[in-house]
Specification:
Largest sheet: 8 strands, mixed
Helix content: 25-40%
Strand content: 25-35%
Radius of gyration: 20 Å
Number of helices: 10
Number of domains: 2
Shape: globular
CATH architecture of the largest domain: 3-Layer(aba) Sandwich
Structural class: alpha/beta
Number of strands: 14
Distance between the termini: 60 Å
Length: 312
């Protein structure tokens, strides 16, 4: 609680595939955020992360189909106003909110939206902006993506994720680069949401970050519904071939597939597929819907590719 009784809002940001939901699930399990209402923003129309967070949060609101810092800004303000209105009627409703942004969101723009709203500014205080950075892919992201740098610039706290899969030299180089972009942020490391040691990087040289042009194609989400004619084995072979051929353009893949073992959470960042996870049966509402986020392809091309492959 704040001394003036406003609700505390933590903004959780990070580029596509940085591990925001995994980190947040662990923090909620630990009770780090107390009794918290979670706002989940997904750029794609099909939400996935709410299924993973609902069991450990006091409430979950989904903002799907638009990024909260731009096209989905109105939905974000409306959702926050609804929480404020509910709490004004019942003070026992949670005093903390965590906004898990989409991987395409600029946290600074969200902060501005809250500060400029005449209602929210009196009911909500942004307590911290936490930005996660994927140590496995940060070098490429920071060299090529404006947004990845902007997210780091806005952070109060920066968490270097997937540290268990990266070499120490790689992690410290990412830390040094992040420190150069944002000298004031607190920097730590984590692996699957669990805090991890971070070696001293004070004498490590950061990556060279080139000037970026403004003619890069936008990153957009695409959803594919996997029909009953596609089984898990066929889909996995197709996806492996797709990531091998176009993994640099497919920045993020996320979805739930029906398998003989139950609903399976499938996630990939560029060409790297994360270990699959079997989910509770209630995840069935989102089964067989896969979201692809990237550039340089069309939804029609992806669907045609899958159809061609399954008819071979």
């Amino acid at each position: 609680m704040t001394t003036d009784n406003r609700m505390r809002l933590s903004i959780l940001g990070g580029y596509l595939g940085s591990g925001k939901t995994t980190w947040l699930r662990h923090k909620l399990f630990e009770g780090h955020f107390g009794s918290t209402h979670i706002l989940v923003n997904e750029a794609a129309e099909t939400p996935i992360d709410d299924t993973l967070l609902a069991a450990q949060a006091s409430g979950v609101t989904v903002l799907a189909g638009g990024c909260a810092c731009c096209t989905g800004r109105g939905d974000l303000v409306a959702a926050l106003r609804a929480i404020c209105d509910a709490r004004s009627k019942d003070q026992h409703i949670t005093s903390e909110i965590v906004l898990e942004t989409s991987g395409l969101a600029d946290p600074a723009a969200i902060l501005t939206a809250i500060r400029e709203d005449p209602v929210l500014v009196h009911h909500i205080v942004v307590s911290e902006i936490i930005v996660l950075v994927d140590t496995l892919h940060a070098a490429d992201q920071l060299r090529t993506e404006h947004l990845s740098r902007a997210q780091i610039e806005a952070a109060d706290c920066i968490v270097l994720t997937k540290s268990g899969a990266a070499a120490t030299a790689q992690i410290t180089a990412v830390a040094a680069t992040v420190r150069r972009i944002n000298p004031l942020a607190e920097i730590s490391a984590a692996d699957f949401g669990v805090p991890a040691p971070l070696a001293d990087f004070s004498e490590v040289s950061p990556f060279h970050l080139p000037e970026l042009g403004h003619d890069i194609a936008p990153i957009l989400p695409t959803r594919i519904d996997i029909g009953p004619y596609v089984n898990w084995a066929t889909f996995s072979v197709w996806l492996s071939a797709l990531l091998y051929a176009r993994g640099d353009n497919l920045v993020r893949v996320k979805g739930i597939i029906d398998t003989p073992a139950g609903p399976l959470l499938l996630q990939a960042v560029r060409k790297s597929v994360q270990p699959p996870e079997i989910l509770p049966a209630e995840a069935a509402s989102h089964q067989n819907q896969i979201v692809f986020i990237g550039r340089g392809y069309t939804s029609e091309a992806l669907k045609a590719s899958l159809t061609y492959f399954t008819n071979e």
